[in-house]
Write a structure and sequence with these properties.
Layout lengths: L2 H4 L7 H14 L10 H31 L3 H37 L3 H36 L4 H6 L1 H9 L1 H17 L2 H24 L9 H25 L15 H35 L1 H37 L3 H35 L5 H15 L2 H16 L4 H25 L4 H24 L9
Helix pairs in contact: 2-3, 3-9, 3-12, 4-5, 4-7, 4-8, 4-11, 4-12, 5-7, 5-8, 7-10, 8-9, 8-10, 9-10, 11-12, 11-16, 12-13, 12-14, 12-15, 13-14, 13-15, 14-17, 15-17, 16-17
Amino acid sequence: MTKKQIITPRPASARNSIWKELKDAIRGTEADYTKIGIKRAIFLLAVPMILELVMESTFAVVDIYFVGKLGPSAVATVGLTETYLFLLYSVAMGMALAVTAIVARRIGEHNREEAGKTAVQAIMLGVLISLPFAIAGIFFSKELLALMGGDEWTIEHGYRYTQWMLGSNAVIVLLFVINAIYRGAGDAAIAMRVLWIANGLNIILDPILIFGYGPIPAYGIEGAAIATAIGRGTGVMIQLWILFRGGKHIHISRDQIRWAGDVIKKILKTSGGGIGQNIVAMTSWIFLMRILADVSSEAVAGATIALRIMLFTMMPAWGLGNAAATLVGQNLGAQRPERAESSVWRIGMYNMIFMVSVSLIYFTFNESLMRLFTDDEQVIRIGGEWLRILSYSYFVYGWWMVSVQAFNGAGDTMTPTKINLVFFWLIQIPLSYYLAITLGWEHSGVFWGVFVSETSVGLFTLWLFTLGKWKTKTV
């Protein structure tokens, strides 16, 4: 045998390997995330989850960009309506946390039949949850805006936006829940593609329906809500079609469409903590917005725009956190707790590096970012100040986002709930009120109150994670 014959072929270049993995992540793969390398598992899950959430935040930023052209009161209408939507999000996201954890466990146990059964019950619960919010929004939108301190323009002209957003909230809930099913199963690529289609349609329709185009009249702020309803409704229809057709890791059949009390009970039991932790966090935000409303509409508008910017830049970090939840759930289901913990520490390091880079951008370009969405100097100054203050806490926040998702992925949703109750209700709200109203710091008091409470909650949650009790949780 000649020397030429025994030379082994050269391996593919690192660049080709990365592109192959990227294609697999975007297309979706049938890989077993409890067995493949941890780095590869993180990459295959995190890439589509990050891209999914980046698109979601892109829509939020584009939406507020167009609404911002209508003036501070229109932006304030969006912000005040979102305080109620945050209550809805807290329920939907809480249930989504439970669904992801349960589906991930069943997939880790290689029990796809039960995973599909869980998916059906979650969808049924999602529809039921949306009904009270729809009724309140359709019939009491003006009263809801007045309760939150909306100005005259907001109540008289912005109420139709509230009607549409709350009245069509079922599509928001189902989008959350069904994508949680896909993420828990490891079909993150499907969740990504659905959200790209839904929010891409939103972005196209937003300027057309807000400002009018050709024969289409200008609906103003109401047009933004109509665009959201159409875009997300389309996304839900695609989700359901794929779910019945079958993804790479999960599908449902018609004979599974029936009420299953035992599964419903398990979802409710697990989601109780998830809903609780989100309700605590979201109601805390409602109180903060109420304090800001007492300061001025500009304070509400500045906070609303700053929040959209933060959501946009933080979505990759949330994507990494969601990947951690899936890996924890599936590896615990496969009886591999140490691999679950290793995944969290590695993802946490990646997240910290990303969040520190974001904080540098906030610190340096805070007002420049605000100017992309408004030319009101007071709104720019207020929003820029919040971005700068919160940039100080992002080093800790990156670790918190991953560690809290580790608890949720394990099905231990009650621990984050108790933590949020103490740090948000007992510390954040009283401290923000004291600084803003009692000491007269106004909006600055709210921002510093948020900084102190969220830095503290991040450090405490990470410490609690290191104790390892989450490894023994069963769902």
